[in-house]
Amino acid sequence: MTIRSLEQEKKDFYSYALYIQDARGYKSRWLYVIFREYFGERLSQEIIDKGKPSKPSQQFMEWLNSTLVRTSNDSAKVLEQRAKAETSQKAQKQPKFKPKDKKGTPARIRVDRAIYDEIKSISKANKDKLFTAKVDENLLKAFKHACDNQDTTASQAVRAFMRDYVKKHGQAKLL
Question: What is the mean pLDDT of the chain?
């Protein structure tokens, strides 16, 4: 049995993993992940620059296969646990309780008529409409920039312009 330095072991590991990655068509990130899993540290640029693919040793292949089997078993367990959790959540859901009146129909929530009328009048008073207009792109950019300089929004500026225009042209009574 030969004794290798840690640096030589890292270089060999990288070469073996690079060979497997190319042969199996794995993404390049795969190599970094298994290197970190095995050594607990990041791959150095020196190893990356000097590394060339080489046929893996039997020891490396045994480790890799055991890792892949463990990973796939872990994934299967996770999927199984998720499925169990989903089914238990579905089983715990209960139908919503609907109170019944004397006739057996769902009871209706009664709203005081005055409150209802007040809400309705408020919603009528606050009906804003969307206004769409075609504008030259450069003009729009300049307008937005001017609004930013005045610390106002484009919508506020357009609404102010519309109010002024209506007042100026004699339709102020509609406001």
Answer: 76
